Automatic annotation (TrEMBL):
Domain 6-phosphogluconate dehydrogenase C-terminal per the UniProt entry, residue ranges: 178-468
A biological process term (GO) from this entry: D-gluconate metabolic process
Catalytic activity: 6-phospho-D-gluconate + NADP(+) = D-ribulose 5-phosphate + CO2 + NADPH
Domain of life (superkingdom): Bacteria
Official protein name in the record: 6-phosphogluconate dehydrogenase, decarboxylating
Species this protein is from: Embleya scabrispora
Subunit structure: Homodimer.
EC number: 1.1.1.44
PROSITE patterns: 6PGD
Keywords: Gluconate utilization, NADP, Oxidoreductase, Pentose shunt
Presence of the UniProt keyword Membrane in the record: no
Binding-site residues for substrate, renumbered to this chain: N102, S128, G129, G130, H185, N186, Y190, K260, R287, R446, H452
Pathway: Carbohydrate degradation; pentose phosphate pathway; D-ribulose 5-phosphate from D-glucose 6-phosphate (oxidative stage): step 3/3
Lineage, broadest ranks: Bacteria, Bacillati, Actinomycetota, Actinomycetes, Kitasatosporales
Length: 476
């Protein structure tokens, strides 16, 4: 008997993916560097389907039906390169290696090019949904060649999450496109989490609500347009009480956020592409600020406004405002992320369909949310919007939210409660709205000190003014 697909790397993700394949009736070859993990998987979950365990790489490859489909789920970086090298040497032209780890898309491009020379399809695949998603249905973002998707797509679509019967898996584009989109997905996830955290902070510190009360507010939001996985788990976390102390759980957690790097990659890549992803950047920086214990200790004594808390009626109105600010800022975060995806797609010639991306993010992944339907609709319409913000539905939503959004940003500044995500999103929105930006002055300054030239509003051409001489203008 041969396997339809194989998984090597049986830590939490690989193990659950292998089980997911098996539960869908696929015979799965399984392998792990430390073979105790392979045996443990078969012992514990063998009854769920058909597993073919292998102790060595050679045995593993021999178990796969040709053309071989091999999924690698090991630590990103050097371990992934080592495992690719080990297996590529054993494969034949036409075989496929799927890297489901969180690889940087530039590594994926490099690996894809090297393996293509040998006739092997390398399919860098973004997989979102964590441990549970891997088992019950993740959102899957495969890159690589169209031929590889023809052979792999049906199996991956089988195990993916489904929303309205549509699998949350689609061929994103060639080489690194899948990992690029997964990276931006994670960037949006950072922004979304930061915005939710700011809403929590404002409801607590400005409106004076306790975590259990904030949990109720979030539960309410989760039955409206903000309905999403992240809002749902936030309500759950805030309602949780610490068993040891009886205090709200969130109050006993240290306030230093860590990160594994995909948010940082998103911002680094956005800087290279020249895409303003300010909401994602603020989210990465907010985590980073939280971790700087020393400068935070030094800053604690800095003066601020006297703490005040809104009361009763005002607090309830403020909670409604925060809902609007959160929704509007979230729209901006997605607009920025989609802009980055489109810029990457242009730069690397990937022809990514943003509407399809929104569609496969509707289920399985961490940022799954009701409002992704609206994004898909916006990009499916015959008039593709230049920015998500200019699509009819979102333009109307922002028009309805903007007054409340401004009040929340103003209140946060007045009360001295940081809301960098809300504020950056609003500044981006107002930046796009502005008929004139002070960029004109910046161009003039650049011309003054560096002869960097400028363009005029009234004539074509490029100009320089002799600032230190007669101040005459020359066409250059
Ligand atoms: P880890 O990232 O913790 O990786 C552990 C696995 O890698 C083990 O199977 C380990 O084998 C193997 N490994 C490490 N180094 C080597 C090596 N040099 N040679 C061979 N095998 C090696 O596992 P996860 O399951 O958490 O994640 C797997 C991948 O999926 C990662 O790239 C991760 O970023 C990505 N991912 C993780 C998500 C999550 O929620 N955890 C979500 C989405 C993607 P051994 O048992 O022998 O040590």
């Amino acid at each position: 008997e041969r396997a339809h697909i194989g998984v090597t790397g049986l830590a939490v993700m690989g193990r659950n993916l292998a089980r997911n394949f098996a539960r869908h009736g696929h015979t799965v070859a399984v392998h792990n560097r430390t073979s105790a993990k392979t045996r443990a998987l078969v012992d514990e979950f063998g009854h769920e389907g058909s597993f073919l365990p292998a102790d060595t790489a050679e045995e593993f490859v021999a178990l796969l039906e040709p053309p071989r489909r091999l999924v690698i789920m090991v630590k990103a970086g050097a371990p992934t390169d080592a495992v690719i090298d080990e297996f590529a040497a054993l494969l034949d032209p036409g075989d496929m290696i799927v890297d489901g780890g969180n690889a940087h898309f530039a590594d994926t491009r490099r690996r894809e090019a090297a393996l293509r020379e040998r006739g092997i399809h390398f399919v860098g695949t973004g997989i979102s949904g964590g441990e549970e998603g891997a088992l019950l249905g993740p959102s899957i973002m495969p890159g690589g060649s169209p031929e590889s998707y023809a052979a792999l797509g049906p199996i991956l679509e089988d195990i993916a999450a489904k929303v309205d019967g549509v699998p949350c898996c689609a061929h994103i584009g060639p080489d690194g496109a899948g990992h690029f989109v997964k990276m931006v997905h994670n960037g949006i996830e950072y922004a979304d989490m930061q915005l939710i955290a700011e809403a929590y902070d404002l409801l607590g510190r400005a409106a004076g609500l306790r975590p259990a009360e904030i949990a109720e507010v979030f539960q309410g939001w989760n039955s409206g347009r903000l309905e999403s996985y992240l809002i749902e788990i936030t309500a759950d976390v805030l309602a949780h009480t610490d068993a040891d102390t009886g205090r709200p759980f969130v109050d006993v957690v240290q306030d230093r956020a860590e990160q594994k790097g995909t948010g940082r990659w998103t911002v680094q890549t956005a800087l290279d592409l020249g895409v303003p992803v300010s909401g994602i950047a603020e989210a990465v920086f907010a985590r980073s600020l939280s971790g700087h214990t020393d400068i935070r200790a030094a800053g604690r004594g800095l003066p601020g406004p006297a703490p005040t808390t809104l009361d009763g009626e005002a607090a309830a109105r403020f909670a409604d405002d925060v809902e609007q600010a959160l929704y509007a800022s979230k729209i901006v975060a997605y607009a920025q992320g989609i802009h980055q995806i489109e810029a990457g797609s242009t730069e690397y010639d990937w022809a990514i369909d943003a509407g399809r991306v929104a569609e496969i993010w509707r289920g399985g992944c961490i940022i799954r949310a009701r409002f992704l339907n609206r994004i898909r609709e916006a990009y499916d319409s015959p008039q593709r919007p230049e920015s998500l913000l200019s699509a009819d539905y979102f333009r109307d939503a922002l028009a309805g939210a903007q007054d409340a959004w401004r009040r929340v940003v103003a209140t946060s500044a007045e009360l001295g409660i940081p809301a960098p995500g809300f504020a950056a999103a609003l500044a981006y929105y107002d930046g796009l709205r502005s008929p004139r930006l002070p960029a004109a002055l910046i161009q003039a300054q650049r011309d003054f000190f560096g002869a960097h030239t400028y363009r005029r509003v009234d004539r074509d051409g490029t100009f320089h003014t002799e600032w230190s001489g007669d101040r005459k203008e020359h066409a250059v």
